[in-house]
Amino acid sequence: MQKGKTSSVKSATESHECRLPLLKTCCSWAASHTVLIVDDEPVTRTAMVARLTRLGYRVLQASDGKSGLELLRRERPDLTILDWMMPELDGLAFCDEVRRDPNILSSQILMMTRYDQPEQIAEGLARGADDFLSKAATSYEIIARVQAGIRTAMLIRRLEQVTEQIRRKQDLLERELQSAARYVESLLPAPGTLLPGIEMAHAYRPALTLGGDLFNVVRWDDHSLGLYLLDASGHGVSPALRSASFSTFLREDSLLNQVGSSDPGAILTEANRQFPLTEDGNYFTIIFVLLDIRSRTLFYATAGHHGAFLQRLSGEIIWLSQRSLPLGFDPTNVYQTAAVPLMKGDRLYVLSDGLYEIPSPDGELWGQPRLEATMREEGRRPVAEVLSHTIDAAARWHGQEHFPDDVAVMGIELGI
After folding, report:
1. Which domains can be identified in the chain, with CATH numbers?
2. What is the radius of gyration, based on Cα positions, of the chain?
3. Are 300 and 337 in contact (CB under 8 A)?
4. How much is the pLDDT for 271?
5. Cα(274)–Cα(249) distance, rounded to whole angstroms?
6. Half-sphere exposure of 163 toward its Cβ, with a 13 Å CA cutoff?
7. Cβ-based neighbour number of residue 87 at 10 Å
8. Is 94 within 8 Å of 65 (Cβ atoms)?
9. Which pairing describes strands 109-113 and 131-134: parallel, antiparallel, or unpaired?
10. Residue 180: CB atoms within 10 Å
């Protein structure tokens, strides 16, 4: 008998000692956390408030669902302990309101109920409760579930903070990209008359990631001019600035001093020597075109670029393409100049691959054939309208507001 009593006392003591570390830990951990009790039963609510207050929590209380919801929105507690059965706004309706409100959507809700049937618990979880607590629960279970709910709330709030930090960084990056895009646009030529009988329009739509597409006009003399479109590999501010730096080399005075010729092949050969691959393997592609009014000839050279074509009055399209390496791959490479005779009414389009390598939502590229068909459909409308409608058609194909790559295109009307 004595032995039994001793054993019983020992078990009770061990149980008490087991709970002491939990209670001590809870008291030290709870001080910085807030719990909201929403219950219309004064006795239950008062007992729960007293228990959690003794443990060190800051405790708020509401006697009905409506006032509890107001407190939740105003105070943003770490955890809400919510009674299921209440007049006017019960626990389930309370959960519905919380999950519909984006400002408190992530709030942790511990539903307190006498129900213990699986279908009832499933309904509560489906409506927005995160966990359940029986009204007959022991103090030990209450502490454990409250701690679990607050741990989850802390993780969610930490995730919200990280998400907000990422959003701010994205906003900053987008502003920087927009600033870089404006800088690139400031380098573009003014549309209008380039030479007697030669009119130019252009369009430029930078992607959110901003590439290195850049185009411009080189005015040689009264009967000839150069056009180029270059693209730096990669996306972001760095390739855009590399293209802007390269454009300095492509100015008329620079080309005359460093190349001594307006020949497109000679220009690309010298550019290939001066702009090798970077340490990260970045490079340029480019097409350089020379329009000679006197000889009615178009001369061109390409370095890995395939985005230029002549459109005849008949609708025939002649792509200006050569098998050629991008700049920088082989410093000894010599680029060749090709020639195409010009006819009255020809239109020249010089464009980036971002205009035709546009994927549809299921991944199919728009492609050069669709680009050709669209431009043929536009007929002889003004070049600026053709460019605008073509880009709109590409955007419809893509199905999104922003293109995945920069879109740059020049349209030149050759009325010579």
Report:
1. 31-162 (3.40.50.2300), 191-414 (3.60.40.10)
2. 36
3. yes
4. 95
5. 9
6. 6
7. 9
8. yes
9. parallel
10. 19
Q: What pLDDT score was predicted for residue 13?
A: 39
| Residue whose pair of structure tokens reads 């800088």 in the numeric block | 183
CA distances from 64 to 71, 295, 380 (A): 11, 90, 72
How many other CB atoms are found less than 10 A from the CB of residue 11? 10
- pLDDT tens-place string over residues 27-82: 555 667 999 999 999 998 999 999 999 888 999 999 999 999 999 999 999 999 99
The sheet that has 214-221: what strands, in order across it?
Answer: 214-221, 224-232, 284-292, 297-303, 338-341
How sure is the predictor about 5, in pLDDT bands with cuts at 50, 70 and 90?
Answer: very low
Under DSSP, is residue 392 helix (H, G, I), strand (E, B) or coil?
Answer: helix
Sign of CA dihedral 37, 38, 41, 42: positive
327 DSSP β-pair partners: 284
Helix 118-127 with 91-100: angle, nearest 10 deg = 30
How many Å apart are CA 258 and CA 253, to the nearest integer?
A: 9
- Whose CA is closest to 203, among 386, 335, 68, 56? 386
Contact status, residue 290 vs residue 262, Cβ threshold 8 Å: yes
The pLDDT of residue 1: 43
Among residues 300, 321, 305, 323, the alpha carbon closest in space to that of 408 is found at 305
**Would the pLDDT of 22 be above 80?**
no
Alpha helices in 55-138 (DSSP H): 65-75, 91-100, 118-127
| Cα distances (Å, whole numbers) of residue 164 to 157, 159, 168 | 10, 9, 6
* pLDDT, tens digit (0-9, with 9 covering 90-100), for 97-113: 999 999 998 899 999 88
Amino acid 288 reads F
Q: With contact defined as beta carbons under 8 Å apart, do 56 and 23 qualify?
A: no
Q: Which helix (H) or strand (E) holds 151?
A: helix 139-186
Instruction: For the beta carbon of residue 7, count every other beta carbon within 10 angstroms.
Output: 10
10 Å CB burial of residue 10 (0-12, 13-18, 19+) is exposed
Question: Contact, 317 vs 295, CB < 8 A?
Answer: no
